[in-house]
Specification:
2 helices; 58 residues; 72% helix
Length: 58
């Protein structure tokens, strides 16, 4: 094809994969952190705006 890269050796492809894997799953960790922060923020909002206005349990 006109826009495709020239063929590479399997060793070069394996090295490229190893380089990517060595960097780690940083995107997944960031996504998990954002999701956790959203859940904690929703919990605090629910606590502040629903439980506290209702007053103490009797």
């Amino acid at each position: 094809m006109i826009n495709s890269d020239p063929p590479t050796s399997p060793a070069a492809a394996d090295q490229a994969v190893e380089d990517v894997v060595a960097q780690g799953p940083s995107g997944a960790v960031v996504l998990a952190g954002i999701a956790t922060a959203c859940v904690v923020a929703m919990w605090f909002a629910f606590y502040l705006f629903v439980f506290l206005p209702r007053g103490p349990l009797q």
